[in-house]
Amino acid sequence: MPSYKAPLRDFDFVLNELIKVQEVLPGLPGYEEATQDIFSSYLEAAAQFCENELAPLNRQADEEGCNFDPATKSVTTPVGFKEAYKQFCELGFTALDCDPAYGGQGMPKTLSFPIIEMQCSANVAWSMYPGLSHGAYSAIHAHGTDEQKATYLPHLVDGSWTGTMCLTEPHCGTDLGLLKTKAEPNGDGSYSITGTKIFISAGEHDMADNIIHLVLARLPDAPKDVKGISLFIVPKFHADGSRNTVYCGSLEHKMGIKANATAVINLDDAKGYLIGEPNKGLACMFTMMNAARLGCGMQGLGIGEASFQGALTYARDRLQMRAMAGAKFPEKAADPIIVHPDVRRMLLTQKAYTEAGRALAALLALQLDIEEKHPDADARAEAADLVALLTPVAKAFMTDNGYTAANLGMQVFGGHGFIREWGMEQLVRDCRISQIYEGTNGIQAIDLLGRKVLMDQGQKLRKFTKQIHKFCQANEGNAQLAEFVGPLAKLLKDVGDVTMGIGMAAMKDRDEAGAAATDYLRLVGHLTYAWLWARMAEVAYTKLDSASDDFYKAKIATARFYFAKLLPEVESLKATIKGGAKPLMSLEDGQFAF
Amino acid sequence: MPSYKAPLRDFDFVLNELIKVQEVLPGLPGYEEATQDIFSSYLEAAAQFCENELAPLNRQADEEGCNFDPATKSVTTPVGFKEAYKQFCELGFTALDCDPAYGGQGMPKTLSFPIIEMQCSANVAWSMYPGLSHGAYSAIHAHGTDEQKATYLPHLVDGSWTGTMCLTEPHCGTDLGLLKTKAEPNGDGSYSITGTKIFISAGEHDMADNIIHLVLARLPDAPKDVKGISLFIVPKFHADGSRNTVYCGSLEHKMGIKANATAVINLDDAKGYLIGEPNKGLACMFTMMNAARLGCGMQGLGIGEASFQGALTYARDRLQMRAMAGAKFPEKAADPIIVHPDVRRMLLTQKAYTEAGRALAALLALQLDIEEKHPDADARAEAADLVALLTPVAKAFMTDNGYTAANLGMQVFGGHGFIREWGMEQLVRDCRISQIYEGTNGIQAIDLLGRKVLMDQGQKLRKFTKQIHKFCQANEGNAQLAEFVGPLAKLLKDVGDVTMGIGMAAMKDRDEAGAAATDYLRLVGHLTYAWLWARMAEVAYTKLDSASDDFYKAKIATARFYFAKLLPEVESLKATIKGGAKPLMSLEDGQFAF
Question: What keyword terms does UniProt attach to this protein (chains A, B) (predicted)?
Answer without folding.
Answer: FAD, Flavoprotein, Oxidoreductase
